[in-house]
Amino acid sequence: MAVLGAVAFMAQLDFFVVNVALDGIGQSFPGTSVASVSWILSAYAIVFAAVLVPAGRIADHWGRKKMLLSGVALFTLTSAVAAAAPSLGVLVGARALQAVGAAMIVPTSLGLLYPSFPERQHTLVVGLWAGVGAIAASAGPPVGGLLVTLDWRWIFLINVPVGIATLVAGALLLPEVRQPRGAAVPDAPSALALLLAVSLLVLATVQGPGWGWTDLRTVALFAAAALAAAATVERTLRAKAPVIEKQLFAGRQFTAATAALFLFSAGFAIVLLSTALFMQEVWHFSPLRASVSIAPAPLTSIAFAMNAGPIQHRLGRTAPAVTGTLAMALAAGYWIASVHTTPDYWGGMFPGLILVGLAGGLTQAPLFAAAGTLAPERATTGSAVLNMSRQIGSAVGVALLVALTPQATTTGFDHAWSVQAGAGIAAAGALLALRPRHTP
Does residue 374 register a pLDDT over 70? Predict the structure, then answer.
């Protein structure tokens, strides 16, 4: 549990921890534009989202332990390269390869949980694993803010000892799990089509605010993504062993979790970036002060994540997830009503951060636990699909925030928080509409 939780935390933390370091990185490479520096985030987001499902599918066939340890090794090596990067181009390239390692780690770590523990403990351990992910997302800005006070390179360097330790522990402790010999190899055309669909969609979403949503390049990318998505669906329905098997969506719980994760993640990405940006750009907090001010959210997430298993055992999966998504919506409504230009952290920002922490701790564990409703041989692929849905949602949320706040005004942030509230309500609606008709 410690090994699988640590590697998942490390891989997911790096998606969020860099946000507060972009200014410092830009200053280290004079002459670089803001658009160029933003590729440190964009390269990771695009590659991570695109590679998740193919990596999960290959892990089932090649061996989950082997895939996980290979991913940790790649992630650790590229973290060291990023920490020592002499130029922005090297840093962006290292981030792209780091994302490949993260995509090999995250779904495979969940896929290894099921065979490592007896069935009676699955709710508990999956709740802990998903809670770790929620904490990683919430803790990203505070951790990044603390490390960047030393030097932005520490954001990447800190991964190296953690990666080496988990490589050794994983080699000794983790079981090897793979499909039986002779199982069909995943269909290459469907994997390529999915890779193109996701990468083009996230690229268009990331670049849309800068290029303009009606710009020919943006429209062309969305059109190409739609064509690739259509090809993916066609191969899913017709290929012998498609990268995404249609049987994954035969159950209502998994389908509901996939849709809800997309919506929740879009809103949660707005939370994570908007709070830090608002406190720095409107209230003029320092990066360190803003990062520490966000800390109540991850601390609250920890409290609920540690009890995710008992909560699900008592209330089921739907009720906690719906409560969490509505808490995120309520936080947005509170900020719209209470946060103004004049700084008022305790009366304005703080109560919403507690609600956000509750949302992160309650929502993600039951949604990721939906992978446990699948057949054991599909758990890793199912986890990859759920993570892909989350990453695409996060990219959409960031793009919406950028589009709605071209200037740091309370009106722009109010519009972003309105979208956050809508995403939370829509996620709750998806969970209620697709909840199982009968509870086992």
Answer: yes
Cα→Cα distances 343→2, 283, 346, 348, 429, Å: 40, 6, 9, 8, 34
Q: How many CB atoms lie within 10 A of CB 313?
A: 11
Nearest-10 crossing angle of helices 252-281, 122-148: 20
- pLDDT digits over 75-94, tens only? 999 999 999 999 999 999 99
3-state secondary structure the chain: CHHHHHHHHHHHHHHHCCHHHHHHHHHHCCCCCHHHHCHHHHHHHHHHHHHHHHHHHHHHHHCHHHHHHHHHHHHHHHHHHHHCCCCHHHHHHHHHHHHHHHHHHHHHHHHHHHHHCCHHHHHHHHHHHHHHHHHHHHHHHHHHHHHHCCCCCHHHHCHHHHHHHHHHHHHHHCCCCCCCCCCCCCCHHHHHHHHHHHHHHHHHHHHHHHHCCCCHHHHHHHHHHHHHHHHHHHHHHHCCCCCCCHHHHHCHHHHHHHHHHHHHHHHHHHHHHHHHHHHHHCCCCCHHHHHHHCCHHHHHHHHHHCCHHHHHHHHCCHHHHHHHHHHHHHHHHHHHHHCCCCCCHHHHHHHHHHHHHHHHHHHHHHHHHHHHHCCHHHHHHHHHHHHHHHHHHHHHHHHHHHHHCCCCCHHHHHHHHHHHHHHHHHHHHHHHHCCCCCCC
User: In which residue are the tokens 């507690």 written?
Assistant: 354
Predicted model pTM: 0.85
- Comparing 360 with 327, the larger pLDDT belongs to 327
